[in-house]
Amino acid sequence: MTTVTGESTTAGGVLGQPLDSREDPQLLRGEAVYVADIDLPGTAHMAILGSPVAHARILSIDTAEAERLPGVLKVATAADFADVMPLPCIWIPGGVESHFPPHPYGLPGARPVLTGDTVRHVGDPIAVVVAETPRQAAAALTAVRVEYEPLPVVTRADEALAEGAPQLHEAVPGNLNAYWTCGDKERTDAAIDRAEVTVELDLVNQRTINSPIEPRGAVGDYNAATGEYTLYASTQGPHNHRFLLSALVLGIPFNKLRVIAPTVGGSFGTKGYLYPDMALVLLLSKALGRPVKWVDTRTGLMNSTVQGRDHRQHVTLAGTRDGRITAVRCTSYANLGAYPSTIGPGVATALMGRSITGMYEIPAAFCEVYAAFTNTVSLGAQRGSGRAEAAFLMERLVDRYAAEIGMDPAEVRRRNLVPKEKFPYDNGLGWTYDSGNYAPNFERALELAGYADMPARKAAARARGKRLGVGLATYVAICGVGPSTRMSKEGMLGGTWESANIRVHPTGEVTVTVGSASTGQSHGTVFAMVAADELGIDPAQVQVYEGDTLKAPYGQGTYGSRSYSMAAPAVALTARKIKAKLIRAGAVFLNVPEEKVVYENGGVHEAGNPENAKTFAELAMAMWYGWGLPPDIEPALDETTHFDPPDFNYPFGTHVAVVEVDELTGETEVVDYTAVDDAGNIGNPKIVHGQIEGSIVHGLGQALMEAAEYDENGILLSADLTRYALPRAADVPFFTLDRTVTPSPHNPLGAKGAGEIATVPPAAAVVNAVVDALADLGVRHIDMPLTPEKVWRVLEGGDR
Question: Cβ neighbours of residue 84 under 8 Å, at least 6 residues apart?
């Protein structure tokens, strides 16, 4: 499916080599252990009763019949957990007044573990059943009788803020979580007022549903003898969940909770959140004196796991007749769902609003976001969250502007790219881009896509009854979440640094433990490569551990494309500490001054005398014994680093989509797709290319088929995979992938985020391509997803 050009490796080192992922064999053989595979002795099984209605008061709950059913061990409702604190929200919109459900510690509250008074979305958890088997637990749910008093429903953010709209939370007047802004409103409005040309669009960046291959799951195990809890969960952030659950939900000592993330089957942002099931399995394990297990279903996931995107926007671009963009303005209504998820408000505000200028040098920019609560599933991160919505609005505006002034869309983009000499570049909205060289990246994408040949290809397609269109999309994606102090200004209630520990064993084998947590990014391969590259040893000597709060140092987890630009630098810096210690100790072992010690290929030798040397294995053993070391050199090799960068990193790129639209059916086929991305220095190109491919497919899904559809009663109509379309192999074109390399100055590897960056531009590229294919019919915009029926109606003369 992929053509790759411009491949390069790091000469003489491990990093940059396309090594196979060491995790793949166990995954392909079905040997990986997921939460669903964990069966502790005596495990009981939990099922959760979700509300069938979107908004109602609970008048009564009768559990008597369910409690009498075979195998049922316990039926619990909110009354059973009156002393349990609500789940907190830890990313509030920074610098503005915001409103949340309350939390006892004065923090923003999110949701209770079970709802006892008012349900606010379909799937809102009301009761749980624990039984001997999953089937018995599920059967008992149907015997729980709940009486509801229906309340009015609202599912759109803009409608939730209207006068007289149904109110969701007493502590949130008018359903408004926050009104958040960035940029210079006065300057932007003035620039728009005096502009030669202005274009406007009303955009719907539709709500979509994250669909990892593994739904969420949790196993709780309480040890009455020690008072210790163990949680096995499909989580992106075991350390964060340990702290939040112990201190802010359960009120137990931090040292009494261990969180383990086994193999996690994908996340795309969904598994970095606190969910009620995590607390419930722990509480019920203690109550029953045995492990309690819960594994979600696909329909359950769609009605309870955080969903993505969901902005309604009015956007304006101003410019000159000769193609210079002078201003951009955005008003966005962001739908947070019924409750604030753990970090949802920050995703909906800062990640989107500060990113709207993309790769362009725009003198004036302003964004305002109204973040509102509605009777839908909570909003959270989805691969490329915030940045994808920002790129979509900007790239659609650029194409509309190009059409308005009669200029080729590529030329408009070319004239407005931030020039290389202006980096680091302040985009006027709160981001300072670390490094970039946009023009070569842009031109390479046009060249690989054959952009100059498109007129001829369009004519050939028309002869076949097809309409061919080409769409461009550029992007900048803030990644490498950290630094901690900067994130605190954005409203993050916590740190965002990362950590790594390296231990060299007496045999010369190396253990790397990191605070990150893989959800399928091949951390075990890449972090081993980083350590091996720094130490000059074979990656096969390095074992990587993560995902267990008992074994790994404290860390922040995996999100925001941060693993290779946050955790990997921590590994590299720790390896350098090991290397520095071996040079100091080498002076003792070689009996030469320290300045005469050369570290090379994992060992040390005397400069000019390679015969006086110690191998890595010999050094490891010597340090283990510690014989002859001076007092200022401790025995053994065991070092830790906590890495907090000076700023974020900003990968970028250009994508080109070529589509053919069938004139009779409205079916859109993406026939070619070119992506040239820049993630700085990358560790393993084979793994990054896989992430790029997956990211593109994710974006194509939103453009063409994915949508979380709610009816007027708040019922999710697309609640399973028979009604929620996902892209399949047949929907995916051949990819032409290339990359440019612009290292980041903000970490020792020069790395930038890569895992989700290619999700950011595809929706814009595809929509631009379809509009281009239909431009001669007067089509100016079509809202996503571009289903065949929707496009067919446009072809038949519908709304254009």
Answer: 112, 113, 249, 250, 251, 279, 283
Structure tokens at 175: 């359903």
H or E element that contains 139:
helix 134-141
Q: What does the pLDDT look like over 435-474, one tens digit per residue?
A: 999 999 999 999 999 999 999 999 999 999 999 999 999 9
pLDDT tens digits, residue range 681-694?
Answer: 999 999 999 999 99
The CB-side HSE value for 346 (13 A sphere, CA atoms) comes to 19
Count each helix (H run) and each strand (E run) in the chain, helices first.
21, 31
Side-chain half-sphere CA neighbours of 155 within 13 A: 18
Interatomic CA distance for residues 42 and 291, integer angstroms: 6
- Joined tokens for residue 391: 């790129």
Q: Strands (DSSP E) along 397-465, which ranges?
A: 425-426, 432-433
Beta strands in 437-504 (DSSP E): 466-476, 498-504
Question: Would you state the structure tokens that stand for residue 154, as one six-digit string?
Answer: 């609202």
Contact between 477 and 384 (Cβ < 8 Å): yes
How many Cβ atoms from other residues are within 10 Å of residue 346's Cβ? 28
Alpha helix segments (H runs only) across 145-297? 157-160, 185-193, 238-245, 276-288
Give the pTM: 0.96
Q: Which residues have C-beta within 8 Å of that of residue 177, sequence separation ≥ 6? A: 93, 98, 99, 100, 336, 340, 345, 371, 372, 373
With helix as H, strand as E and coil as C, how does 762-776 read?
HHHHHHHHHHHHCHH
Residue carrying structure tokens 């979580």: 177
CA 722, chain centre distance (Å): 25
In this structure, are residues 795 and 663 in contact, taking their beta carbons and an 8 Å threshold?
yes
Bridge partners, residue 637, by sequence:
504
**Nearest 5 degrees, angle CA 363-CA 369-CA 370?**
155
Q: Which residue, 279, 343, 277, 276, is CA-closest to 308?
A: 343
Rounded to 5°, the CA angle 690-694-696 comes to 120
Report the alpha-carbon distance of residue 601 to residue 175 in Å, rounded.
62
Residue at token pair 């002869």? 463
Tokens 């929707």, residue? 790
How many angstroms separate the first and last alpha carbons of the chain? 34
